[in-house]
Amino acid sequence: MAREIRITPSILNADLNNLEYEISRIASHSDLIHLDIMDNIFVPNFTFDFEYANKIITSCPIGIDAHLMVADVDLIAPAYAEIGCASVTIHAEASANIASTLRNIRNAGARAGLGVKPQTAIDAYASFIDSVDMFLIMTVEPGFGGQKFMHEMMAKVRRTRQLIGDRPIWLQVDGGVSLDTIVEASEAGADVFVAGSAVFNAQDPAAMIDSLRNLATSVTY
Ligand code: DX5
Ligand code: ZN
Q1: CA dist., res. 37 & res. 30, Å (int)
Q2: What ligand is nearest to the CA atom of residue 141?
Q3: Which of 36, 46, 132, 201 lies at 20 to 30 Å from 146 by C-alpha?
Q4: 136 lines ligand 1 (CB under 6 A)
Q5: What is the average pLDDT across 89-103?
Q6: Would you call 91 helix, strand, or coil by DSSP?
Q7: CA 123, 63, 154: angle at the middle one, nearest 5?
Q8: How far, in Å, CA of 132 to CA of 16, rounded?
Q9: Which of 8, 11, 12, 69 is the best mutation target for the ligand 1 pocket, counting ligand atoms within 8 Å of the beta carbon and taking the most?
């Protein structure tokens, strides 16, 4: 089956002092820019507050895929949709009311994503399937770029692909995606790939995105 593959580079490990330049180097090769929002509570790291993220989002030449790794997610997630993110992903572990937050994200005009950490099974969240535009399976513990891809998450990716069936729901993997791991993730059924250090540590980030896309697309599925 022909699938549409999407590459969403994470700017977490880009040069944040030259973000406009960093994004301009990759924008025309990327589907969306993946923006990691961390609050130092849900994960042991902090990235941007809402005000700073707003500046990045409104000045970005292509759509933003916001990945909210924050404890107080139900309140803030719709606000990220309202300021123009193309996609807003919440973590199941952080939300007190998943259904209403996903609905609020959609009502504010963004695609609604639901993510799970490595220790969290997906089956408990299968009932939200009709409220979701994307599932995110973390392939590292959220918090930092540059970690090792967890191959053992592929069973969860396969299970999620099975749950999705014919629905037009995207299936994203995030963490450790590189030339060495993207084929395995694509074979398991992922079709949206976050890549941070693989892209920004490359000599030519745009060419790296193309190579990742070609590898993911080469998988017959
Ligand atoms: C980790 C973040 C990822 C991270 C990916 O918590 O959610 O998006 O930036 O970086 P790499 O591709 O280097 O693992
Ligand atoms: Zn992320």
Answers
A1: 19
A2: 1
A3: 132
A4: no
A5: 98
A6: strand
A7: 30
A8: 31
A9: 12
Alpha carbon of 159 to those of 51, 82, 123, 189, 216: distances in Å? 37, 32, 8, 9, 19
Q: Which of 42, 89, 140 to mutate to test the pocket of ligand 1 (most atoms within 8 A of CB)?
A: 140
Q: pTM (2 decimals)?
A: 0.98
CA separation, residue 162 to residues 34, 46, 112, 195, 221 (Å) = 25, 34, 19, 24, 13
Is there an atom of ligand 1 within 6 Å of 189 CB? no
In Å, the largest CA–CA distance within the chain is 43
**Residue corresponding to tokens 């042991």:** 44
Reduce the DSSP state of residue 34 to 3 states and report it. Answer: strand
- Please state which of the four CATH numbers 3.20.20.70, 3.20.20.140, 3.40.47.10, 2.60.40.2950 is assigned to the domain occupying 6-217: 3.20.20.70
Classify each residue of 3-28 as buried b or exposed e, where b means 16 or more C-beta atoms within 10 Å of its C-beta. Answer: eebbbbbbbbbbeeeebeebbebbee
CA dist., res. 39 & res. 70, Å (int): 5
Compute the C-alpha angle 37/203/61, nearest 5°. 45
Task: Indicate if ligand 1 lies below 6 Å from the C-beta of 146.
Answer: yes
Q: Tokens 């069973």 sit at which residue?
A: 155
